[in-house]
Amino acid sequence: MSLDYIYPNKRNSMSPGAMSNAPDRLDGYHTYNLCCRSKQDTGRHKSNLARYGEDRRAYENWSEGDWKAASWLMKEFQKYGVSPDHLGPISLGFNHRPKFRPLTRAANSARNNRMTFEDIKLLLVEEITEPIISAHSKSIWDLLKNKVRNDTDALKLGKLMRENMHHILSIFSYLAKKGYKDFLIRNFLHPEYANYSIKFEIFDPKTGTYKEMIKTSGTKKQYANNAKRYIRISLESLKQYSLKKNRNLKKWLNDDTEENLAQVVKYLESGNEKKALSKLFETFEVVAKHLSTKFN
């Protein structure tokens, strides 16, 4: 799929009729309550309103996992006024999974992206049966997950994983700017998840669990548009990330990391995507090892 028409920000997000970047934004004119939003947000089309239930932070952090199923499950929580909490914060590199803990909005906001020792133990149990961490952040998680012994360690791990995500997004931004957006999309994004309609049978808002998730494949135009939007936001986030202050790669790259990244570009220039991807993951490992020394 050609992505040239997706990456440039051709539409001003503040133009009349433009959708807000929900659920990140509440400006006094919009409501988070799914039950009455179509009445209070006059002029909003129903197909567009459905986007409010999606968590664009997952796109901005290039989080793996079934992002559509997770977003649609979030809507189930919101119907009951319950805030869905990621056990493993996506801003730290964890997957956007259709699995959340029910919290009040205040409690979820206070938690932010901090993890406790109990969170780490639960994540280790869940990891036995399903992937919980995005591939780009797996190195730092694997190096330190079994070294956490208390809440202080858990907080320390969270800070290092957040710093690791800064490096990951900086690298992705660098490669996108070099013209290798398609390479990133093929290997780190999953637009195919958009091709399904999803229903959760017997959802319990008190526990955040459901009896069954039913996925039905479809070919609706809105599914294709959903996939394009997912890709567009992910790419635009890299562009914005590279424009922020203090995002200069030279300020944090050590010699090993810089050399590996140069090799990644060299392989991509020669058309050897397989070697480029392998070297990119080596780069992630170098970054993780460098950061892990701060844990002790």
Description:
There is one protein chain. With about 300 residues, the chain is mostly helical. It has one domain (about 60-290). Helices cover about 50% and strands about 10% of the residues. The chain has twelve helices and four strands; from the N terminus they run ααααββαααααββααα. The protein has helices at about 35-40, 45-50, 55-60, 65-80, 105-110, 115-125, 140-145, 150-175, 180-190, 220-245, 255-270, 275-290, and strands at about 85, 100-105, 195-205, 210-215. Strands 1-2 form a two-stranded antiparallel sheet. Strand 3 and strand 4 (about 210-215) form a beta hairpin. Helix 6 packs across helix 8 and helix 8 packs across helix 10 (about 220-245). The protein is globular, with a radius of gyration of 20 Å. The N and C termini lie far apart (about 45 Å). Residues about 1-55 have low confidence and may be disordered.
Strand order of the largest sheet: 1-2
Count the E strands: 4
Query: Whole-number average pLDDT?
Result: 81
Q: Strand portion, in percent?
A: 5-15%
Beginning-to-end CA distance, first to last residue: 45 Å
Computed over alpha carbons, the radius of gyration is 20 Å
Number of helices: 12
Shape descriptor reads globular
Bin the helical content.
40-55%
The main sheet comes to: 2 strands, antiparallel
Integer tally of domains: 1
The class by helix and strand makeup works out as mainly alpha
Question: Helices and strands, in N-to-C order?
Answer: HHHHEEHHHHHEEHHH
Low-pLDDT regions: 1-53
